[in-house]
């Protein structure tokens, strides 16, 4: 077995939660246990539901302030810091892999990590000692995002942990009652079965092929990072059996989080 194969990192899709995730009695420990079971990455590439920018953009490659892209929370959530090293070498690799006719890449050097990136990283890698780069989603089209993931896949052999950060169900406007709404539970169960059977076509067409898909994702940005992860994992091209590492619900939303490889 080659050294490259031995060092290949998995690819993750995780549900990132809101800043109060840090106060949940269970979820932070689940994220910490997950990262402890992974090989230590040389760098982390984050794709968050909270950064849509076209053409595809690379964020800061030096430490800059976080993006507190939320409103109405207690003040202490705006004091959280995550001073991970920048990742200029990873940024150069991403440019090299993605730049092609029809796929320009831009740099936004002052754009820090948003809460879709730093909220889970605080729990998974609290020492903030691994270089992190965040890139934008230039589209919400599942097939195009999957193709971006495929182009990024070689980074896994360089020790890079590719993380798509979203939420397995996400419809805040429909959370009008306590408990788990039926649409969230139905979509979560459908998504679990589609992942287990590696039904990539169904997942790519989830709005039409899933129950309650339009309730679970009235706007699809929180499911979209899954397709980058699927592409990076070789879904449809090679065996890419995923496993759910975290499941259950948080404030009625499915927090299912999945590891490929």
What helical percentage do the residues reach? 25-40%
The dominant shape is globular
Biggest sheet, in brief?
6 strands, mixed
Poorly predicted segments: 1-6
Secondary structure tally, helices: 10
Q: Total number of β-strand segments?
A: 10
Span from first to last CA? 16 Å
Mean pLDDT: 94
Order of helices and strands: HEHEEHEHEHEHHHHHEEEE
Estimated radius of gyration: 17 Å
Strands side by side in the biggest sheet: 5-2-6-1-10-7
Structural class: alpha/beta
Can you describe what's shown?
With 261 residues, the chain is an alpha/beta fold. Helices cover 31% and strands 18% of the residues. It is built from ten helices and ten strands. The strands form three sheets. A six-stranded mixed sheet has the order 5-2-6-1-10-7, sandwiched between helices. Strand 3, helix 3 (88-98) and strand 4 (105-107) form a beta-alpha-beta unit. Helix 5 (142-152) crosses helix 10 (225-232). It is globular.
What topology does this entry show?
Blueprint: H1 3-6, E1 11-15, H2 27-36, E2 43-52, E3 56-58, H3 88-98, E4 105-107, H4 115-124, E5 132-137, H5 142-152, E6 160-166, H6 182-196, H7 200-204, H8 206-209, H9 213-216, H10 225-232, E7 242-246, E8 249-250, E9 253-254, E10 257-260
Parallel strand pairs: 1-6, 2-5, 2-6, 3-4
Antiparallel strand pairs: 1-10, 7-10, 8-9
Helix pairs in contact: 5-10
Name its key features:
10 strands; alpha/beta; 261 residues; two-stranded parallel ribbon; 18% strand; 6-stranded mixed beta sheet; single chain
How is this structure best summarized?
With 261 residues, this protein is of the alpha/beta class. The chain has helices spanning 3-6, 27-36, 88-98, 115-124, 142-152, 182-196, 200-204, 206-209, 213-216, 225-232; strands at residues 11-15, 43-52, 56-58, 105-107, 132-137, 160-166, 242-246, 249-250, 253-254, 257-260. Strand 3, helix 3 (88-98) and strand 4 form a beta-alpha-beta unit.
């Amino acid at each position: 077995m080659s050294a490259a194969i031995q060092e290949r990192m998995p690819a993750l899709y995780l549900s990132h939660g809101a800043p109060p995730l840090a106060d949940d009695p269970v979820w932070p420990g689940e994220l910490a246990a997950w990262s402890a079971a992974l090989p230590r990455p040389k760098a982390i590439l984050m794709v968050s539901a909270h950064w849509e920018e076209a053409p595809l953009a690379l964020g800061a490659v030096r430490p800059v302030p976080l993006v507190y892209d939320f409103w109405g929370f207690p003040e202490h959530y705006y004091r959280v810091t995550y001073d991970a090293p920048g990742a200029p070498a990873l940024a150069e690799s991403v440019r090299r892999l993605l730049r092609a006719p029809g796929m320009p890449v831009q740099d936004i050097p002052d754009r820090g990590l948003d809460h879709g990136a730093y909220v889970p990283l605080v729990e998974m890698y609290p020492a903030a000692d691994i270089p992190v780069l965040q890139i934008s989603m230039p589209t919400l089209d599942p097939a195009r995002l999957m193709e971006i993931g495929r182009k990024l896949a070689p980074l896994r052999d360089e020790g890079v942990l590719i993380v798509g950060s979203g939420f397995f169900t996400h419809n805040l406007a429909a959370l009008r009652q306590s408990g788990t709404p039926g649409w969230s539970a139905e979509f979560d169960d459908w998504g679990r079965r589609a992942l287990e059977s590696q039904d990539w076509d169904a997942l790519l067409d989830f709005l039409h092929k899933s129950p309650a898909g339009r309730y679970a994702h009235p706007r699809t940005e929180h499911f979209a990072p899954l397709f980058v992860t699927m592409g990076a994992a070789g879904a449809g091209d090679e065996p890419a059996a995923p496993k759910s590492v975290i499941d259950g619900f948080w404030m009625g939303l499915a927090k299912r989080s999945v590891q490929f490889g």
